[in-house]
Amino acid sequence: MEETIKLEQFLKLAQVTATGGQAKVLIQSGQVRVNGLVETRRGRKLRSGDRVEVGGEVLIVMSDEEEM
Fold it and tell me: Which of 7, 30, 35, 45 sits between 20 and 30 A of 20, alpha carbons compared?
């Protein structure tokens, strides 16, 4: 089964935001893009290979298996 992570959780894990509240504001203000498209749903499920863009920085979602 393919692993997923919610956008809000990913932003915290990647240390883009310190809290879920900060992530929520960032996402709902239209400042986050997923695979090139503005994403305003903090519960958006991300999969390995998805590209998240925030403030000019591009982050690639990777599964635990890919990191080894």
Answer: 35
